[in-house]
Amino acid sequence: MEHPVLLPLYYFPPVSWFTALAAHPVAWLEQQEHYVKGTFRNRCHIASVSGVQRLTIPLRKGKNQQQPIREVRIAYDEPWQMQHWRSIGTAYGNSPFFEHYMDALRPFYQAKKYDLLWDWNYDLLRLSMRILKIKTEVRLTEKYAVQPDGIMDFRGNFNPKKLSNDVDCQALRYSQVFQDRLGFLPDMSVLDLIFCAGRMDI
């Protein structure tokens, strides 16, 4: 029987993250870790007309680096939800599936207000899985293990500054909105896949 996979929870994770998720019948989400700066936990990359654009969720001031991931709080000192939704609309307004899924996503940016980063990311994950029809069973870790036994540990595989070397994101190719001028931009946020392709089985 194939081993489960262990993944960190991100803000609209990259396509390679979802490739790893969909390839396993069971996926554990790491909820016992501490927040790590400079990761996909509060940022995602979308493909805009000028190239890769980073969307970052601001966090409440404090020592987030030392906080348990389930206690990290979102800041609303600036209208980041409106800014993110505007950027998403500008990037994907002309994509094949934007009109199909925008109504499901819009409430997260115009109506809902989450206190905790984990809750925001988790609800977006469940929505993304429904859209992509991913049947993987998702479980939450009960304790932190440096070297988990019997589980494929992908917690360190995804870095915003470089593509994952352990997950073959290059194999999953689809037509992107600005591909004619930018070429194919691999491993964008799953939003790119959802709006441009609408499914995982490309």
Account of the 3D structure:
- The model has no long low-confidence stretch (mean pLDDT 91).
- With 202 residues, the chain is an alpha/beta fold.
- It has 6 helices and 6 strands; from the N terminus they run βαβββαααββαα.
- The strands form 2 sheets. The chain has a 4-stranded parallel β-sheet with strand order 5-2-1-6, with helices on one face. A two-stranded antiparallel sheet has the order 3-4.
- The protein is globular, with a radius of gyration of 16 Å.
- β3 (43-48) and β4 form a beta hairpin.
- It has one domain.
> Measured on Cα atoms, how large is the radius of gyration?
16 Å
SSE order in H/E notation? EHEEEHHHEEHH
Q: Using DSSP, what is the number of strands?
A: 6
- State the end-to-end distance: 26 Å
Main sheet: strand order: 5-2-1-6
Helicity range: 25-40%
Shape: globular
Mean pLDDT: 91
Question: How many structural domains?
Answer: 1
Catalogue the unreliable spans. none
* Class based on secondary structure composition and strand pairing: alpha/beta
